[in-house]
Amino acid sequence: MTVPPSSVLEFPAMLHGPIDAILRAVRVQGRSWAQEYLATGAFSQPRQMRQVRPDEVLIVHSGAEFDFLPRSYWRIHLLAEAFESLTEGISEEIHPRIEQAFESFCLSTPWGTLYHTVAPPPPRSAQFMARRFAALLRFWDALQESRYAFWFDRKYTLAELVSDIYRVTMGAWCSESAITVREHLVLTVERMSRSTQEDCMEAVLRAMSFLLAEDTGFKHREALSDPGFLREHLAALSPRDFEDISSAYPYTVSIQLADWDRALGMP
User: Fold this and answer.
1) In this structure, are residues 156 and 201 in contact, taking their beta carbons and an 8 Å threshold?
2) Which residues share a beta bridge with 49?
3) Which of helix, strand or coil describes residue 220?
4) 125 vs 128: CA distance, rounded Å
5) pTM over 0.85
6) Residue ranges of the domains in the chain?
7) Fewest CB within a 10 Å sphere: which of 17, 120, 145, 232?
C-alpha cells in the first residue's frame, strides 16, 4: 500500500504517548503486521492515525529522551520494537523476505521513512541508502514543518537533522558547496543510486578522510591516513562487509576504522 505525499502529516497514533504505552502498542502492532503479511503478503497502515501538530516535537533518537516521566510525546525511534516482534514465532527462512517487504512498506509512509533515515537498519549499502534518501525527499515538504529531538539539548529542523547525521556521507558523494541540504541530498541520491563498486570505494575513502580529521581518538592515525593502506584493506573486505559501508554511512565507516585501529595495535 503506497501512501501519497501530503502536506498534512499523520503518524500512527501508537507512536504518541508515554514510553511504556508506546512499547506495548508497537509490539502488538508488529505481531499484527506479521500475521497480516503471512495471510496477504502485504502490510497496511495502522487503523488509528494522528495528525502531527506543527508545535509538536518528534523524538527520533533515544539520546533525546529528556523526560523519563510518564508523559506523552511522539517517539519515532520506538518503532524499532515493531521489527523485534515482526519475526517472533516465524520461521527464520522467512525473516529476510518479511524484513525487506516491511522496509518497502515503511518507505511508502512518512513515519517509516523518517525512522529508516534517522536510524537505518542493516544493510546500509549504497543501494539501500539511496532508496531511503529518495523516500525522504519524497516526503520532505510534509516532514520539514516539524521539529525533531535527536540529542536532548537541541531541537532540529529537518535540514539540520539530515546535515547532523549525514554531513560526512553527503560530502563523500558530492563536494558541491553553497547548496541547500535538500539539494545536496538530491545529488547524493543521484550519484549513489548509479554508483559502481569503484565509486563506492572512492566515497568511503573520502568519508574516512573526513572522520580521521575530526576524531582524534585513533591511535594509529598515520597508518589509517595512508590511502594505500585503506585501499588495500577495503579491497580485502568480504563482499558483505564492503556492502555494509559502501554508502559511506558515518557510523559503519567509523566502526571499520576502529577495527583496523585495534588490529594495528595487536602484537
Assistant:
1) no
2) 12
3) coil
4) 5
5) yes
6) 10-166, 196-264
7) 232
